[in-house]
Every structure is written in structure tokens, then in C-alpha cells.
Amino acid sequence: MILFEQITSLPEEYIKRSVDLFLLEDRVANDVTTIFSISEDSYCKANIEVESKCIFVGGPIIKYILADCDYEIFYKDGDYVPQNGIIANISGKSSTILTRERVLLNIIQRLSGIASTTKKYVEIAKPFGVQILDTRKTTPGLRLFEKYAVVMGGGTNHRLDLSAAFLIKDNHLKAGGGITNVIKKINENNKFGLNVELEVDTIEQLKEGLNLCVKCFLLDNMPPDMIREAVTIVRKNSEGNDIFLEASGGITLENLKDYVSTGINAISIGALTHRIVSSNIHINFE
């Protein structure tokens, strides 16, 4: 299996820097509604609750957004939370909770939605030993958060950024003079031994890559029958069992079963981070 760096935790400085930007964006220090309607000496208790079951992600973020409050979190990131479950209790100044409520919910709703969606894909793929990979189709500025959420949902991170590996796509081939020319240039300059993955959308391209000893292929927008043909060709190669095959393009929860049974190693799903529905989480004051 090909394995990239996995985002299994979030650096504290990254969380703090991001939270500062989130709070600045919402101008929490200038919440006119709260400033002119809530007394400075008003204190309250509240619960963070889920309306529909989900995989929770966001514990380390709560710590920074509600740094001036007391709180108790009952679930770890990656835990299943049942319908109407209480994620955490909060107590503190009413104004602090009110001004930060939306920022807190926006991020944990999104990350929990990503983890919950990922879990659905992973459960279908697991019996076939197929990895579910994310992509770089992430929200600008939120990539670490979103890739972390994928891992919390049981998925696997693909490359974090453009420096992490060679991924040769169709436009690289068009701009670089074709498969043979591009692979030759990369092999001459791959001084750090980075993974080299070639995107192909035809059997002819796959065979050309095999002749150049490519060890990792992205089978792009191939229907299941064509993927089975590609898998058969690759596995018959003398080093076929060591070649990593990833499928991508047009694969959804509804048709995933058609793909996981093809003999593929992994499936990358852009929708894990760019087409998800945020989890339904809210804050209720007692």
C-alpha cells in the first residue's frame, strides 16, 4: 500500500492561529447584539448537542475557541455520537459563549460532517481491503483540519500538498510531451525518492506506464469493467503485486460497491471534503 503522511493530530499553534483568524473574521469583539443586550456579569451554562448521529471531530478546537470558559467534553475525536447526544457542557460568561457560538459550530459541524461521510465510504470498502483516500479538493485555509477529519472518520490521507509526491496528470502530459518524456524527466530529477503516480484514462496509457516501470497508477474515470481489465493486466506483470492501483472519478456512495470489488487498492474521493453535508450540531443554553 502507498502511504502518505497521515494527519492524526493537529498542531496546537496551527489551531490557535486558525481560531484567531476565525474570530477576527466574525469580529467577535464587536458583536453589537450581545454588547448592548447582555450584562457583563451574566453567566450561564450550555450544552453542545447533536440533532442527528454523527462522528464527532473538534475537541482540540473547542479548547481554543472557549478558552475563557469552563467545559467538559464527553467524546473524543472520531467517536460516534448518537442522536440527541451531548458532546460537551460549557459554563462561563454569557457574552463569551454568545459571541463565539457561530464560529465554534461552523468548524465542528463541518469537520464532523467530513468524518461522518468518510465513515460511510470506509464501511463499504473495508470488507474488500480497499483504502478510501481524500484529495486536495479542500477548503482553502482548512486543509489540515479537513484531512484530520478524514482520518478521524477512518479514511486515509493522500498527499498533503504539491511537494509531497509526483502525481502526473493529463495536463502535465500535454504540457510535458507525453508519458515517456515526462517519466524520464522525473526519474532524472527525483533525488528524494518521492512516490511517482501516473494518472491514466486508457489501457494504452497504462501499458506505456508499465513499460516505464511505474509503480503507482491513478485510474481516472474508468468504469468498473475497464478497471478490472487494468487490474488483470497489472497483476500479470512480473512486479504486479507491488504496483499500487487507485481509482477516482464519478465514484459515489451509491455506486461504490461496483468499484471496491474490482481488485483496486484504493479509491480517492474528492467529495469527502468538498461535497459534504455538515453535521447538525447546536448549542443550547440551560
Write a concise keyword list for the protein shown above:
elongated; alpha/beta; single chain; TIM Barrel; 6-stranded parallel β-sheet; 40% helix; 4-stranded antiparallel β-sheet; Aldehyde Oxidoreductase, domain 3; 2 domains; 286 residues
Task: Provide a descriptive summary of the structure in words.
The structure is a single chain. It contains eleven helices and twelve strands. The chain has 286 residues and is α/β, with parallel strands linked by helices. The protein has two domains: 12-121 and 277-285, Quinolinate phosphoribosyl transferase, N-terminal domain (Aldehyde Oxidoreductase, domain 3, Alpha-Beta Complex), CATH 3.90.1170; 122-274, Aldolase class I (TIM Barrel), CATH 3.20.20. The strands form three sheets. A six-stranded parallel β-sheet has the order 6-11-10-9-8-7. The radius of gyration is 23 Å and the shape is elongated. The mean pLDDT is 96.
